[in-house]
Amino acid sequence: MRSMLWQDTKATLRPSPRREGRQNRLKGALGRGTLEKEKPPIFGMIQRCGQVVIQMLANVRQVTIESLIKATVLPGTLIYTDEYGINARLDQWGYGHKSVNYGSGEYARDEDGDGFYEVHVNTMEGFWPLLRSWLRPHRGISQEKLPFYLGFFEFVHNVGKRGKALLHSLIELLVE
């Protein structure tokens, strides 16, 4: 079916030329990224209305994720995730765990009926576009330098300041 475009106020419909998709898109291997594939996975955790932790990982195995979570999150904390299988062991590791199921179209859930959808991962999902747009001008970042870019962006996000105030915070950190 061809798309139609209104041409004038007489409501004459004329088919518009079909627009082809982007021809130069990146053609990468399917599946999860790894360092070996030169598509390193970035793991992120964010406290609602709070601090973020982002780190480049060698892989996305449970043993890799477990050590990072245990080093960052206090035991007993309630963690909200998507349905990705790696999160299934959070209960066994001593954390509360609730998830949304993107596969079935669930992006947020109101568990207690108060009209507030408390189970969601929108905070972290909203963070990724910020990181991508910040990294985009720095095209071709090597895997060796990517952790430094991630660390700086994490610092900037967590300080919550911009411009000269950010510079002051950075100098304070360096002087300590």
How would you describe this structure to a colleague?
The chain is of the alpha+beta class and 176 residues long. The protein has a single domain (32-158), classed as Nucleotidyltransferase, domain 5 (2-Layer Sandwich). It has four helices and eight strands, in the order E-E-E-E-H-E-E-E-E-H-H-H. The strands form four sheets. It has a two-stranded antiparallel ribbon. It has a two-stranded antiparallel sheet with strand order 3-4. The termini are far apart.
Layout of secondary structure:
Blueprint (H helix, E strand, L loop, with lengths): L3 E3 L6 E3 L26 E5 L5 E5 L5 H11 L5 E4 L14 E4 L8 E2 L9 E2 L1 H14 L10 H14 L4 H12 L1
Parallel strand pairs: 5-6
Antiparallel strand pairs: 1-2, 3-4, 7-8
In short:
The chain is of the alpha+beta class.
Name the helicity range.
Answer: 25-40%
Largest sheet: 2 strands, antiparallel
Give me the oligomer status: single chain
Instruction: Tell me the distance between the termini.
Output: 64 Å
Low-confidence segments: 1-13
What share of residues are in beta strands?
A: 15-25%
In the CATH hierarchy, what is the class?
Alpha Beta
CATH topology: Nucleotidyltransferase, domain 5
Can you list the strand order of the major beta sheet? 1-2
- According to DSSP, the number of beta strands is 8
Order of helices and strands: EEEEHEEEEHHH
Structural class: alpha+beta
Radius of gyration: 22 Å
CATH architecture annotation name: 2-Layer Sandwich
Shape: globular
How many alpha or pi helices?
4
Mean pLDDT: 82
Question: Which characteristics define this entry?
Answer:
176 residues; Nucleotidyltransferase, domain 5; 16% strand; globular; disordered N terminus
